[in-house]
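General statements about sequence and structure are easier to judge against a single worked case. No coordinates are needed to read the tokens, only the vocabulary itself. The sequence in question and its structure tokens are set out directly beneath this paragraph.
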Amino acid sequence: MKREEFQSVSLWAYKKVHEKGQVRRDSNPATSHPGRVGIILNQKGLRHFNDDEEDYLYSLVAFCHDMIEDEIATYEEIREAISNICGEQIGKAVADRVQILSKDPKLKNDETYLREVYIPEIERDEITRHVKIADRIDNVQKSSGLKNKKGYILETEWFLDLAKGTVFEEDLNQALEQLRKIVREEELRESVAIGESR
């Protein structure tokens, strides 16, 4: 794959997300998240611009990883758009991985589904595994403004085994510990405020 093809796919993905106009839970535009996930992958040596096709796949999957789950594009749209730019093999490889990374909307809050179906499916492929962990790191780092931080901490703990033995293990643990610290500080402030009001 040529750099120009990679850039064309990145631009297509950005436009699709931008057109949807979604805002993430941290109040930032949804367009910023896929790029940050790509940067996290790049920082660990899973580079965007390398002659190794697999490195492009990491980046392409990162840029498209939320598209099906967030109803920005269908599997078929992703496969067709990328196939038209990069060829059928790469289009299918990216779309297949984005499908794996997309939670079933009916079961996305079901712990059994997440632990027994979703996470094991992701774990079978190195690219989906690394993209998901990078995605989770970015989400945890940007979750300090969430109301249900404790719930997000609990859900993230389910992904710790997925990160074990990867270049991301320490980063995910650090991001999670930072979020736990924020929760403890908020609880302490709330406790002090309640004590002062008595």
Q: What stands out?
A: The chain has a mean pLDDT of 89. The longest helix spans residues 169-197. The two ends are 66 Å apart (CA to CA). Residues 3-197 form a domain with the Hypothetical protein af1432 fold (CATH 1.10.3210.10).
